[in-house]
Amino acid sequence: MNINALVIEDERADVVVIQQTLAITSAGSFHVEYVTSLADGVDRLARGGIDVVLLDLSLPDSEGSGTLTTLQSAAPQVPVLVVGGTSRQSGHTDELAFGARQFILQDRIDCHRLAHVLRAVIRRGPLVDVLDGRRPSLQ
After folding, report:
1. Are 55 and 80 in contact (CB under 8 A)?
2. Radius of gyration (Cα) for the chain, nearest Å?
3. In a domain, 74, yes or no
């Protein structure tokens, strides 16, 4: 199974860690693209072909839960893994409440976990309301 992942992250070093981690653990099953802003991420998603997004919530053109909300409005069918902060920072439950399927701390990304977490996020799919199949309101 080939998986197309889009990393939306403005720190090149963090992107390299993600790319290298997936290359080591997934035997080439992940194709990783990256962009450095939310606007570029929305543009890339509009072209289709992305299976999962790894999203930093602190970007040059967007900050916090609004980043996730904007992304999910632009591509509600694509599951999102929020990659953020470090174990010394808190607040990731807020991102989960705003619809992220999974949250992973930047300093906890390792070769044994990331590919597994991404596959689980994809299996679960985007967040939808169980009763009527629509996305819940993020307001």
Report:
1. yes
2. 14
3. yes
- Counting the structural domains of the chain, the total is 1
Beta carbons of 105 and 96 less than 8 angstroms apart: no
The CA distance from 8 to 59, in Å, is 8
| Owning domain of residue 76 | 3-124
Distance in angstroms (rounded) separating the CA atoms of residues 27 and 61: 34
**Could you tell me the CA-to-CA distances from 22 to 48, 118, 132, 137 in Å, in that order?**
21, 10, 35, 33
Pairing of strands 58-59, 52-55: unpaired
Whether residue 20 is contained in a domain is answered as: yes
135: in domain: no
User: Whole-model pTM?
Assistant: 0.78
In tens, the pLDDT along 52-68 reads 999 998 899 998 888 98
In eight-state DSSP terms, residue 130 is: T
- pLDDT, one tens digit per residue, over 2-49 is 899 999 999 999 899 889 888 887 666 889 999 999 999 999 999 999
The answer to whether the CB of 4 falls within 8 A of the CB of 31 is yes
User: For residue 17, what is the DSSP state?
Assistant: H
